[in-house]
Specification:
HATPase_C_sf; 3 domains; STAS_dom; STAS_dom_sf; three-stranded parallel beta sheet; Heat Shock Protein 90; single chain
C-alpha cells in the first residue's frame, strides 16, 4: 500500500493527524551499529499474563521481556518474530509505551530482513487500551474490532519524536482538561517542566560515541485523562544512557570516589532533589525537580516515578522519603511516570453548560 493511500484510509477513520504524523517522522539510527548475518526461521515470544510496573518484580518482568524482543530482533537472525500477547490479562499504559518504543527501534534496524508481527489479546480491556493509545496504528498493524460497550479513557496517543515539540505538550494538557482544569499558572509550570524533559533527552540522554542501537535523541510520550478513576497522568520514555549513567559522567573523579557505593536509585533520588545543570541554567536540568514540586503544590494525591538503569524511585505526595528499589537486569534508558489521583472531576459538558 502506498503512503498516500494509507493516509486516505486513516482519514476515513477520523485519524488523519496520526497517520501523517508517523509518515513524517524520520528516526536517526546509530551508524556505528549494524544488524549482521542472514536471517532465517521464526521466533515466538510469549508475553506474561500481567504487564505492569506496580511492584519491583513486575518491573523486572517487563525489562526482561523488552530484552528478549531486542535480543531476538537484533542478534537472533530470525526472519520472522511473533509477539504472542494473546494471554495478557493486564497491561498498563506505560508498559504499552515501552513495547511500542522497543518494537519501533528493532524495526528501524532490521528493515525488511526481519518481520515483527503478533497476536491480539483475548482480554478486551487490553485490546481497548492498545487501540486507544495508538499501539496498532503506531506499528502499522490492523486494529481488532472492539466491543460496542466499553468505558473509554481519554488518551493522547503515543507520540514519538527526536526534537523538542511544544505542540505535543499542548495536546497533553488539552487531554488533561477533559478531567482536570489547571489554572493558567499551573498549566504554564507543567508545560515548562515537560519541555525541559524533552530538552534533556535531546541534549544529554544519548551518547554520540556509543556503539549501541539507539535511535538518536528519540523520546516517546503517552498521556491519559480518566474520569471514571478521577486520574490524569503521563509517561515519558527514552532509550538513552539512563539518568544515573548520565549524571555520573558529569561528576568529577573526586565526587565519584566519595560516592562510589551509591546505587542507581540513589543517583536518581539526588537528581530529583538536587537538580544539576551543566549550563548553569534555570531551565536545563530541573525538569524532574519541577514535576515533583508541582505535584507537592497541588494538594491532591499524586506520584512521580523514575525508572532508569538499575534504579526505581517513587516520590509520593503522601510525604516521607522516596521509595528506592533496584531492578535486576536494568532498564535501557529512562522512564518517567507522573500521576494525579483522586482529583475532583466534573464532566466537560457540565463545565461548559454552567
Amino acid at each position: 500500500m502506498s503512503e498516500k493511500r494509507g493516509v486516505k484510509r486513516n482519514a476515513r477513520k477520523g485519524r488523519r493527524y496520526y497517520a501523517e504524523k508517523w509518515l513524517e517522522h524520520q528516526p536517526r539510527k546509530n551508524p556505528k551499529f549494524h544488524v549482521k548475518g542472514k536471517s532465517r526461521g521464526k521466533k515466538v515470544i510469549e508475553f506474561p499474563d500481567s504487564l505492569t510496573i506496580e511492584s519491583e518484580q513486575d518491573v523486572n518482568v517487563v525489562v526482561s521481556l523488552l530484552g528478549s524482543i531486542r535480543e531476538a530482533a537484533l542478534k537472533g537472525h530470525f526472519k520472522r518474530i511473533v509477539l504472542d500477547h494473546s494471554g495478557v490479562r493486564v497491561m498498563s499504559p506505560e508498559v504499552a509505551l515501552m513495547l511500542v518504543a522497543e518494537i519501533q527501534r528493532c524495526e528501524a534496524y532490521c528493515g525488511t530482513r526481519t518481520v515483527i508481527t503478533g497476536t491480539h489479546p483475548r482480554e478486551h480491556a487490553v485490546t481497548e487500551l492498545l487501540s486507544e493509545i495508538g499501539f496498532y496504528e503506531a506499528l502499522s498493524i490492523k486494529e481488532p474490532v472492539l466491543p460496542k460497550a466499553y468505558q473509554s479513557r481519554t488518551y493522547v496517543q503515543v507520540e514519538r519524536r527526536n526534537k523538542t515539540l511544544p505542540k505535543v505538550v499542548d495536546s497533553l494538557l488539552e487531554c488533561f482538561a477533559k478531567v482536570f482544569e489547571f489554572d493558567d499558572a499551573d498549566r504554564k509550570r507543567l508545560h515548562v517542566a515537560l519541555i525541559e524533559c524533552m530538552d534533556n533527552v535531546f541534549e544529554h540522554a544519548y551518547d554520540p560515541k556509543s556503539h549501541l542501537p539507539h535511535l538518536y535523541k528519540e523520546w516517546w510520550l503517552i498521556g491519559y485523562a480518566d474520569h471514571q478513576q478521577s486520574a490524569i497522568g503521563f509517561a515519558f520514555y527514552d532509550q538513552g544512557a539512563g539518568i544515573p549513567a548520565t549524571i555520573r559522567k558529569k561528576k568529577s573523579e573526586r565526587v565519584l570516589q566519595k560516592l562510589v557505593g551509591w546505587s542507581d536509585g540513589q543517583w536518581i533520588d539526588r537528581a530529583v532533589r538536587r537538580p544539576i545543570s551543566r549550563h548553569n541554567s534555570k531551565r536545563r536540568g530541573h525538569g524532574l525537580d519541577k514535576l515533583k514540586r508541582f505535584l507537592d503544590s497541588l494538594g491532591v494525591e499524586g506520584s512521580l516515578r523514575v525508572i532508569a538503569n538499575k534504579g526505581d524511585v517513587e516520590f509520593s505526595t503522601s510525604g516521607g522519603n522516596a521509595k528506592v528499589d533496584t531492578i535486576e537486569g536494568g532498564l535501557n534508558g529512562s522512564l518517567i511516570v507522573w500521576t494525579l489521583r483522586g482529583i475532583k472531576t466534573e464532566p466537560v459538558s457540565e463545565r461548559s453548560s454552567s
